[in-house]
Amino acid sequence: MMREIFNVAFITGLLGATLRMATPIIFATLGEILAERAGVLNLGIEGIMLMGAMTGFIYTLGSGSLWLGVLAAALVGMLLALLMAFLAVYLGLSQHVSGLGITLFSTGLAMFVYRLKVGSPLVPPTVQPFRQVAIPLLSKIPIVGSGLFNQYLLTYVALLLIPVISILLYKTHLGLKIRTVGENPFAADTVGVNVNLTRTLCLVAGGALMGIGGSFLTLAHQNMFLIDVIGGRGWISIAMVIFGNWNPAKGALGALIFGLLDGLQLRLQGLGFRVPFDIFLMIPYLMTIVALIGVSRRASVPAGLLKPYRREEKGG
Amino acid sequence: MMRLRIVKRPPLPGWARIAIPVAAVVTTLLLSAIPILVAGANLWQSYYHLFRGALGTRFNLLETCVKASPLIFTGLAVAFAFRAKFWNIGAEGQLLAGALMATWIGIYWTWVPKFLLLPLIIVAGFLAGGAWAAVPALLKTRLRVDDVVSTLLLNYVMLHILGALLFGPLQQPGSSWPRSSEIMEAAKYPFLMIRSRFHLGIPLALVAVFVLWFINTKTVFGYQSKAVGVNLRAAGFGGISTTAVMMKTALLSGGLAGLAGVGELCALQYRLILDISPGYGYSGIVIAMLGGLHPVGVLFSALFFSVIIVGAQTMSRMTGVPSYIAEVVQGLALMVMLIFLLLTEYRIKVARK
Fold this sequence. Notes:
The complex is a heterodimer. Chain A is mainly alpha-helical. Chain A is 69% helix and 1% strand. The longest helix of chain A has 30 residues. In chain A, 52% of the residues are buried. Chain B has a single domain, classed as ABC transporter involved in vitamin B12 uptake, BtuC (Orthogonal Bundle), CATH 1.10.3470. Chain B is built from 13 helices and two strands. Chain B has a two-stranded antiparallel ribbon. In chain B, helix 11 packs parallel to helix 13. Classes of the chains: A mainly alpha, B mainly alpha.
């Protein structure tokens, strides 16, 4: 057994699978971090990802263009995030319940639209999915090269977004505004930052990332839409935000660990080992609950999270 | 430029507590017309088949009751928890815990006298759901772990526990599917009406409505649980042991959700499968909110959604509108109710600048 696990092909395959399985989680985690940094917990994430997965798939099926599918998924994510902003930012409704409402609504809508467009044929339709793109030279590095540098373009984009969002949040004026809105909206308002607009823009940008993350599952990882295609990956992303202390790099690291676990159980199953893979898949959830202990006392949680901003009700 | 301002309003009179959910239902049904029209169906025909499919014949009416049973249980579970501000999003996992316990006893406890088996399963299923809810409650009270996220995540932990068991020790011998063997005959809920699936779980759900109403209005614990929800600190200063009340609230809430799982297993499925619940735990959130967190409100709101879920099947067959409309309606209802609740506390003023 050990010989089979510790050979080159297995490691190469595992590295590749890790990045592949982490990609949608990285997109969604970064999207959620944007929203939460501005003070809005978006529990609509699971539903938005499913709508992204469905829209990307249906649009590609119709248009034949994978990238148009990804674009459509991003747009749908933005629209749903706008609805979330209307409920949780402008009306100031409970972020928890608004988010769950968005998830329930989007989940229903995704299945509704899919059934409407595709019907219920015996063999579900498929698209020609994205192909992996090998980076010249780097992909020729022994052992790790063809695992790490022979990926889908969207995976490279996800990895590239980690430093981009980090720099945006920590090194730019806009990032400072976003973090202030999430920390202390009253202070932000005092210095002339439009709190609700900033929150809305962060939600919408985050929604686009969630939608794209969802579409990766139907356009790259798989080539069809199944109702349970997201399978809790949105909630995993919520978990990764907490696990990563609202920091993009740490959150993405969590996503990669999840990808590794997920890739490992897939690979081991592929080799015919009877592993209780459910126990593997439980780990990220349990890890997060442990990470949640004492989080409310840590400085890293945005102080304005979950609190609607109403100028008249200062002092919250 | 137009600006929306949200200002507090004086409390609404008592009749609003009924009027608001009714208005929310009407608004939801109006909004549901959009997906129906998009699907290219005739609106009146669709609504006609929706309600006829749920209420039109004896069999369908009883099926609607069958569907209502788990929804009443999860609705009550969420409502009682929310009332104490224990944000239990985990009714789904607690339901599964109840079903798992019922499966285990129903298959393996062959030494139990037959007439004791079912009462034992019901009690054990309640405790299993309660225990699974006690975990996040304990984390909340002792370690200040956010209950929304922990209950949500524990749903998936329970789902994976089920998966591990159904691919392992609980798997039906010789089967390659993740499913258990069938429970013993004596462990099955009796059917109470001929030519229907009207089972013991339905009167049990009604009893639960009454019991919860009784607890809420007539017992010290019900009062304390609400006091903890209204103001945790004040309740503590007032001499209520808030931790103990929170734990008991979680136990009762999770237990009710567990009974939903027991009912689905012992009355309908007879064997544990991974998709034993099509999200009844999450529907419970919508039902509790629409029911104003009141047991009787939950009863009516659960009946409303059973009508939608059962009727959507007929509507789908007759008009081609996908039956997933039922899920869309649930999501819409939650958002609409949330907005209507806001209007009970605040007014939205449109100011021009």
